[in-house]
């Protein structure tokens, strides 16, 4: 048996809904915070602060960039996931770091706690050797690794980094075994490669292209679906027969559960900001490999990569893989 709602309750409900709709329609009414899970001055921070003024312009409110570094990004990602989903807090998210942390240890957030707003940058992984190396192609690298398992050395910026996970994925698909040498940062990794102390470097393509153009390094391949316009002569791993797409994805994420109207307003402002010619020019000057994706495409990519990383962890737990 259905009961009738008292007229006063119905009127109050309609008034409340109208008031809430009006409030969201006026979003944003106050300054907004952008969380960056890494230290000020780093690559992620620079990208975030470069983009922020253009989001401000299209959002109509000022944005405060708040650095919350620590625990490989977990502190900042947790702060983002636990923020009120009211549109006044969003953040830069780094992939695969954000995905890898809950896979390799118990974390205070999960992928489901953060809604993807947009991918801004995709800095593909790349394998580079000294220009005078005997290895001149990915095919020769695979042949050498199969002939001498565990003797070909590669450097990365650390265990569990996108550089490291990229090579683990490649090893798995190529059926080879390489020897990992982790370094504290890209500068140390570059020096070791140029000094001939390791066979090759696993670095992002943007970190390798200058040395390639200077004749110091030869890039064997880039782990992207399409060749980066700043390195059009470097083939992708897919072109060479290895379905490896891995690198550093940097984008915008928001606490899950944001009202649809607010999410669309924020997403629209980010989309317009990335398309701004002035931002595009600044990104080119900084060597940022822009690769914009909207919420659906970015979200689908995160789901796919998350599943791949879980499968990789089951076979090769990278925290135990030196």
UniProtKB/TrEMBL annotation:
Family to which this protein belongs: Belongs to the UPF0065 (bug) family.
UniProt protein name: Tripartite tricarboxylate transporter substrate binding protein
Origin: domain of life: Bacteria
Annotated TM spans: none
Pfam families xref list: TctC (PF03401)
Signal peptide: 1-25
Keyword Nucleus found: no
CDD domains: PBP2_Bug_TTT
UniProt xrefs under InterPro entries: BUG, Bug_dom1
Alphabetically ordered keywords of this record: Signal
